[in-house]
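Following up on my earlier thread - several people asked me to post the actual chain instead of describing it. Fair enough. Here it is, all 184 residues.
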Amino acid sequence: MKVLAVTGYKPMELNIFKPDDQRVSFVKAAIEKRLIGFIEEGLEWVLLSGQMGVELWAGEVLLDLKERYDIKLAIIPPFENQESRWPEAIQQVYQELTMNADFYQPLYKGDYKGAYQFKAKNKWLVDKSDACLILLDDEYPGSNRFFHEEASWTEEEYPIFVITPSDLEDIVEELRMTDSDYWE
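Reply from S.P.:
Thanks for posting it. Predicted structure:
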């Protein structure tokens, strides 16, 4: 696998409303753990559409990993100015990621025109990647279910790697055990 698409929930779908919410660090740790494994097996590119939440967090993780690994980041939003209605702090993260990405190109010129742009984005990401990593709880699918459906419908072998709520619980426990205060 050389190219991986990464996606997941938007922050509000996880009841996360502040950028400094501690749960973001757990999600990032889970993403980092999986990405390092893929990179060490030969992953070269990560594709994101740049949506807020899991994708932006994955982008931040990738910028850190680029300091240690030879990995490239592509951001392919469905249209230009997708961040225009986001909170300012999230817009700044998006701008930093797009400036530091190895490749950035919106699929459609201009602003949002219709839901077809999101469908096209999902199809493009699946078509251009060898596999995907998705944060998903089967019991509570959010907007990420549309990407998951597109990935599931592909006729070619397309591995879907999932970060589950159980994986997040394991990461929380791992991080808790590395905290020296935990053992006192």
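The longest strand covers residues 3-7. That should answer part of your original question.
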